[in-house]
Specification:
It contains 13 helices and six strands. The chain is α+β, with helices and mostly antiparallel strands and about 400 residues long. Strands 2-3-1-6 form a four-stranded antiparallel β-sheet. Strands 4-5 form a two-stranded antiparallel ribbon. A hairpin with a 6-residue loop joins strand 2 and strand 3. It is rod-shaped.
Length: about 400
């Protein structure tokens, strides 16, 4: 039993050795084919790599920098009151990357460097906007990446002209800084915009109230109603006192003098004049610049309402103005900008094509393909031989 097992193990080793040797013989037999495929692919790849246009890469690195402002306590809720989102919850790097990937910055870079004729190589696209085509080409040239841990953002530009690649990378940085200044995505900006609208509305409200007060004063001739009303009351009391005195004097004279006596007529005329003045004070809307007794309380109430609304509006305007001045200071503090770590370099070594890598990959692939083809051809020959042997037999 043991002898049989040893014999079978020996036979298996011999079969393995024979198989490996047969494989080696096949490779040796087909070595010209394998070597030919390898050399052909390697040489052709080398030629193609040398004929390919070299591509240069200019890189720049930036990092976002921001300063947070404390602000007034009640300014934190202004964004919510204005119905706008709170931008401070976002990440600075994400905002900058969003700007760098935006279409607007691409268009600004293209216009800044006049890239349309360069990117389109003088060809006019049919039925398409040249700017759209230029944006698509630039998008393929530019790569934006960031490091989540450090927040460093890398801008990479690839082009066959190394100087142009450097200019595009520099233009990206300049336009990024300009756009971040133009579009400050901060709470302070929303606060300032909100307060500006409130100030405009409050100024309009103040003007309306002032115009209403002026119209009221012109119509009623009331400037200081309390002092004017006190003057009316004094005049009214004086007239009533004179009237009572004249009535008493008239009754005394009527007891001794004839009804048509000149003194009695004179007293009656004086009494009629005083009665007319009293009726004028009691019934007419005003006497010169003095309010009448019938309309005095109403005028005083109306004037008081106008003044109260005007004072409230002035106080609200003063508070808004103070908050507006504070939020302008906050906006100057709360800013997101970028600090350039590495300026765009002028590349002197192309990054594409990678000639050595291309040749190595092509040679390796051709070698494997040649080996596979050698085994396949050998298998095909063996199949043909068996078929012929079967036919002969």
């Amino acid at each position: 039993m043991e002898n049989r097992e040893k014999l079978s193990e020996r036979e298996l080793r011999q079969e393995d050795e024979i198989d490996l040797y047969e494989l080696w013989l096949i490779l040796k037999k087909r070595k010209k084919l394998i070597l030919g495929i390898f050399l052909t692919a390697t040489v052709l790849t080398a030629i193609v790599s040398f004929l390919m246009t070299p591509i240069y890469r200019s890189e720049a690195t930036v990092i976002p920098v921001s300063s947070k402002s404390s602000g007034l306590g009640n300014l934190a809720e202004l964004a919510a009151i204005a119905g706008v989102p709170n931008p401070s919850a976002g990440d600075e790097s994400s905002k900058i990357i969003a700007v760098l990937n935006s279409r607007e910055i691409k268009e600004r870079v293209i216009k800044k460097l006049n890239l349309i004729p360069i990117l389109l190589e003088g060809k006019q696209p049919k039925k398409r906007d040249p700017m759209n085509v230029a944006v698509e080409i630039l998008e393929k040239m530019v790569s934006i990446s960031d490091d989540k841990k450090t927040g460093v953002i890398k801008i990479s530009v690839e082009h066959k002209d190394p100087k142009l690649a450097q200019k595009i990378a520099q233009a990206y940085i300049e336009e990024l800084q300009e756009m971040m200044n133009e579009k400050k995505l901060t709470v302070a900006k929303f606060n300032r915009m909100f307060l500006e609208e409130q100030l405009k509305e409050q100024e309009k409200r103040l003007r309306e109230l002032q115009e209403r007060l002026i119209a009221f004063q012109k119509k009623t001739k009331i400037i200081a109603p309390e002092s004017q009303l006190s003057g009316v009351l004094g005049l009214y009391a004086n007239l009533v006192s004179q009237r009572m005195s004249l009535i008493a004097k008239l009754k005394s004279m009527e007891a001794t003098l004839a009804p048509d006596h000149p003194q009695i007529k004179a007293l009656r005329e004086q009494l009629a004049a005083i009665d007319s003045q009293i009726r004028q004070i009691e019934e007419r809307s005003n006497i010169g610049a003095l309010p009448s007794l019938s309309t005095g309380p109403e005028r005083l109430t109306e004037y008081g309402d106008l003044m109260r609304e005007l004072k409230v509006a002035q106080k609200v305007y003063e508070n808004l103005l103070a908050m507006y001045e504070q939020v302008k200071i906050d906006e100057a503090k709360e800013n997101i900008y970028v600090e350039v770590i590495d300026r765009p370099n002028l590349p002197d070594v192309p990054v594409k094509p990678k000639k050595k890598l291309m040749v190595a990959v092509a040679g390796t692939s051709a070698l494997f393909f040649g080996v596979f083809l050698a085994f396949f051809l050998e298998w095909l020959d063996s199949v043909k031989r068996r078929n012929q042997e079967n036919i002969v037999s």
